[in-house]
Each structure stands twice: as structure tokens, then as C-alpha cells.
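for the writeup, i need someone to sanity check this before i put it in the appendix. the sequnce is what the collaborator sent (i think, or maybe the updated version? ugh). structure was predicted straight from it, no edits. if anything looks off just tell me and ill rerun, i have time this weekend
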Amino acid sequence: MVTNLPAEARAKWIKVMEARTIEEKIKALEEFLSAVPKHKGTANLRLWATRRLAELREELEERKRKKGGRGISFFVEKEGAAQIVVIGLPNSGKSTLVKQLTGTRTRIANYPFSTDRPVPGMLRYQDIYFQLVDTPPLRPGGGPWNNRVIGLVRNSDAVIIVLNNEDDPLKEYLSIKSELEKSGILLYKPRGRVVVEKERAGKTGVRVTLMGKIIDGTIDDVRKIMESYRIYNAHVKIYGAVTLDDIEQALFESKVYKPSVIVINKADLDIEKARVKAYEIHKQDPNAPIIIGSAKLNKGFEKLGEILFKLLGIIRVYTKQPNGPVADKPLILREGATVYDVACSIHKDFIKKFKYAKIWGPSAKYPGERTGLDHIVMDGDIVEIHVKG
């Protein structure tokens, strides 16, 4: 095991996963922490669990305040193709950027901490929309909203980091990156990544989609790990090269990767400085897209939608009924999605009654190819599901 957890701690963790309410999660996580032995191998797990416990307690207090009609809610329901949280230090220009890109009403002022709650807005890209969420500023070392903003980032699909070209963008970036990493949020893509999507009880079992390789095991080993935690219905997606330890670690969510876009804002004040800082940041994280622009002038962000689309690995799948027209609105899925995911998105009964699918588009060998549930779909595919009468 990755942390050599004793049987008691494993049993406690199962209770954490089974918890439904915040109160249940807090109690289960407290019991789990008490059962985890203190040694070098569990240090990171204990740190993550402690921070997660603090986040849950804050969330519980927030809900109580909201129920009592006081305080500010930090919960933002996801809409559109993906939710992207926009973060930055005070006066970085986050609010101006979100307002320019989405037209949403957000509070803008030339003094720190003018934004005191998350404000969502919609950014259109072709035939889909991205939800951008403006947030209160982060303050490295501890701020009034740090945990709540980090909680928003954890639940998001990606993050936009806005840096102020009036100050030192590189220093700001490293500071924000460090703050996120303390909470187990990675901005760099690891060599391999595992996503475990739990599904409703049924006869689906544990499905494994390989978009990489398991270095020290097999798909059967993956299923055994899931079953050891009483997970009998799940979709395990494996990207890149991973070990069985990586797969087990994914159950704890102690580290999560968030794709990021870096924005050097107020570049119009000193474009050469912005370019130099962009180069320095690129050396730190070569894979993160960097935009040099000015939110005030609304310049430099013309390709943001395209960047987010590629960064998130989004695919659009269009459905059609037999002998019917193609739907105007696409299903939004992720790279690696299969006909099974398409069928589930339409109606859960389609899995039970599934007969075959017909595919037109990039993933089809020929127009109207017949496939099964395991066929991997691609962006632009048209899928027609046929079910048993």
C-alpha cells in the first residue's frame, strides 16, 4: 500500500467515502485521522486530511450562516462545458477580466479585497460556454478567504491565474503555486494521472479505460484495489504511466491536478517586462499556456476559449435518434469517453437495453460504423444509439 495503512484505517476511510452529508464527512474524517499512524509514510496523507477537515468545517459554518440568512455563500453550481475558477492576488485585475469576457456584473475597485464573494459568468466558444468564476483574492500565508477559494479551485475543472504586471508576475505565480500545493493542488501535469469516477450501484462493475499504461500491474489488479475499498461500480481512467500505488492514491484525492492558464495582466503598462516575465514563468512550467494581455483594454484574450477547450481535453458528441435529425446541442464529454458514457448521458436505461451504436465522424472507420459500448468517441462524432425493443 502507498501509505501502509492498517486495516482499521482502511475501514475508516471506507466510511469517509460512504459519507453523504457534511456532518457525516467531518465525523468520518476525524475518525480516519485518529486511526492513521504517525510516521513519515503517512505525513502527506495526514496533512491533506487535516486541511480537508478544515475546509469541510468552514463549509458547514457557511451553510449554517446561509440557512440563517446571514453571511456569504461560496458555493457555485457548475454550468456550461466546464467551470474555470479565476484566482489572483489583490488588485491583479481578476474582476475586470471576468467582466470583460462574460459581461457579468462583478465589483471592481482600485483597492484590495473589493471582491468578497465568487461571481460566475459565461464565456462563449463556438457552440459551447465556459463558466468563469471571479473569486476573492488569495493572500499567501493566510487570508480571510484562502480556504474557501482553494475549495472552489479543488471543485473546478481548471484555473486561470491572473498576475499583475505592475508588480513581479513571476514572484506572484510562485507564491500562488506554493499556496495551492500546500492544499494538494498541482498546476503541473504529473507523468501519469488516475481519475476514479464512482458510479451508481448496478451491474456495471469496475471499468478501466487505459490511455497509457500500468507499470507494475494489470487491469485485474486495478479492480482488486477498488474492491478492497468496497468500490464495485466505477470508471477508472488512466492517463500516462502510473503504478498501482498511484491508482490507490487517487482514492484519497490527496493530490489533484488542475489545468491552468496563466494571464499576465496590465501588460499594456510595460509590454517588454510582461514578455520577460512570461519567459521566466515558462521555464518554471513549460506546459502551462501563458496569455499576455490587458483586461482593462480587453486585448490579448481572443484565443482564451480555444486554449481552454484544448487544455481541458473536451470533446463534443452530437446525438441523433434513428432516422432522426442530429441534435443541435452537443453532449460535453472528456477525451477518452466511450459510447457507454454517451449512452449514460442520454438515459441510464440505455445501458440495460443497449443493442449497438452507429457512429459518424472522426472515430468511425466508415460512416455509420456499428460499435459497442467500449468504442472511444472523438470530438465532432455523431452517435446514434439503438436499443432492444
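The two ends are 47 Å apart (CA to CA). Residues 186 and 257 are 5 Å apart (CA to CA).
thx in advance!!
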